[in-house]
Amino acid sequence: MVRHDGCMSARVRAPELRGRGWLNTGGRDLKLADLRGKIVIADFWTFCCINCLHVLDELRPLEEKYGDVLVVIGVHSPKFEHEKDADALAAAVERYGVHHPVLDDPELDMWQQYAARAWPTLSVIDPEGYVVATMAGEGHAEGLARLIDELIAAHEAKGTLHRGNGPYVPPPAPETALRFPGKAVLLPNGNLLVSDSARHSLVEIDPDGETPVRRIGSGERGRADGPAAAATFSEPQGVCLLPTHVAEVAGYDLVVADTVNHLLRGVRLESGEVVTVAGSGRQWRAEVDDHAHDAFAVDLSSPWDLAWYDDKLIIAMAGIHQLWWFDPIKRTAGMYAGTTVEALRDGPLAEAWMAQPSGLSVSADGTRLWVADSESSAVRYVENGVLGTAVGQGLFDFGHVDGPAESALLQHPLGVCALPDGSVLIADTYNGAVRRFDPASNQVSTVADGLAEPSDLVLTPSGEVLVVESAAHRLTRLAPGALSAAGASTVDGPRHRTERKPTDVAAGEVTLDIVFTPAPGQKLDETYGPSTRLVVSASPPELLVDGAGTGTELSRRLVLNGEVTAGVLQVTAQAATCDADVEHAACHLTRQDWGVPVRVVDGAVTRLPLVLRGLDA
Fold this sequence. Notes:
Elements: E1 12-13, E2 21-23, E3 39-45, H1 50-65, E4 70-76, H2 86-95, E5 102-104, H3 109-113, E6 121-125, E7 130-136, H4 141-158, E8 181-186, E9 192-196, E10 201-205, E11 212-216, E12 239-241, H5 244-250, E13 254-258, E14 263-268, E15 273-278, E16 293-294, E17 303-309, E18 312-317, E19 322-327, E20 332-337, E21 347-348, E22 357-362, E23 369-373, E24 378-383, E25 386-391, E26 397-401, E27 403-404, E28 415-418, E29 424-428, E30 433-438, E31 443-448, E32 454-459, E33 465-469, E34 474-477, E35 492-497, E36 503-505, E37 508-516, E38 522-524, E39 532-539, E40 544-546, E41 549-551, E42 555-560, E43 566-579, E44 587-600, E45 607-615
Parallel strand pairs: 3-4, 4-5, 36-44, 37-45
Antiparallel strand pairs: 1-7, 2-5, 3-6, 6-7, 7-45, 8-9, 9-10, 10-11, 12-13, 13-14, 14-15, 16-20, 17-18, 18-19, 19-20, 21-25, 22-23, 23-24, 24-25, 26-35, 27-31, 28-29, 29-30, 30-31, 32-33, 33-34, 37-42, 38-43, 39-41, 39-43, 40-42, 43-44
């Protein structure tokens, strides 16, 4: 194998696949020997991670095109405590339409065996059982297709490629009225509209919270506009009613975050007709700017929730760790808050850092926008042009702890609901709880627990609270009195920290190298400026004496503070490539964020390599 620094390394035999169990195999345990003769992609993922979900969608066309020679193995190496639960993993595999075998790796044994450092990481194994490529992050579909074509040609010539069906065995199809509902909104007629995410549609439900009235969308995955019965979505999430005066001009009443399609869709409630109102359908991979863009031409990235705030529709753009805005009348859209760096940092909107914002709610007086910032297990808020944090401590600290907000902990919350008294309810998804934060007392309490991945909350005019209990496939009413002081409880549960093995590095000068090799048939593209970009920061900031900031080289001299014994290096790298020596060459952008735990130790390594993309020679 040739690295970017010109050094050679021997062929690496793929480590054996071992874990707690397998899904989507009909109960069979797979070994690498069972896959000999096939090209294998081991996809190291965790189901909380939006980048991992993007990769699942990137792999679908490859699985279809190369179905007789390619086997994708999902290796689930979890971040959060909840993700270690076998039942939760099985639900996620169904929720996200994973149609390949999945190995349960709860202790990250395979993650370490394959030297993964980031979610997601892809390892490509050839038909003879050798690792021939490693890729971190998303955006590798084109490169993978070229590599697969090369491997097919080489191994057919050698006689080592075996065509035929793979080991995937689909589980039995479930029957429920809803399947992994995501978000809900109260309609003017008193009914509820729920995004039925795993069935790629919207369902209008009677005020009893149980009886379906009508379905908008065919139930098939797609992106077609049209009448209610023919329109299609792909894993829709957030839904938001427009103000009446805006809806009259726009021509539709409600906007849907069509998450996997990277689109916003408009719905006319009277007829159920669906129209696309924003998004090109391409996933955003560009440079950050503060310009207004034509809403139909702009690229979005996994819009997850919506709220009307500051006289515009605000979008929780989970895929790039930002908030965006959309103007339905001017038909323009642009960035509202965040820099695309995945971390927790407060400050002016253009400088703040977020981590997969997934839920939005506006305070009763309209002054504050509450944000469920899921990957940082935090509740954030926008007010007076600044992003603040109410509850939460960062990417790697989570748990179920009530009490003073500065020490309270959540676990991957996906929803928020502002209450008339100024407090906010939290769908604390991976704790299976509804929590409440009261700014007046600065206290967090638990309102209800024992729920199955609550993902949203709806407050009715009568003061009732409905919970979208996603993994139970239903809406659930909170008990009367749950919101009273007597109805809340104080939980002092476990505190968790994501413990990935830290990398020992030396104090003083350390060289950070991003290993990147263009895919077969591609070259670095400098048509619109430098082809590469590297952003480095640290938590705590004092860890880095020198080397923080943004540059265009994929190698950076860092100076680490010997008085800070441990921390996290936050690294974002991207590389632009285009097809080489062809007319009308297609362009591609590869991007990855790393949070690298480090321990500063005398005499440790002075070079830190991270693989954005590495290939066999």
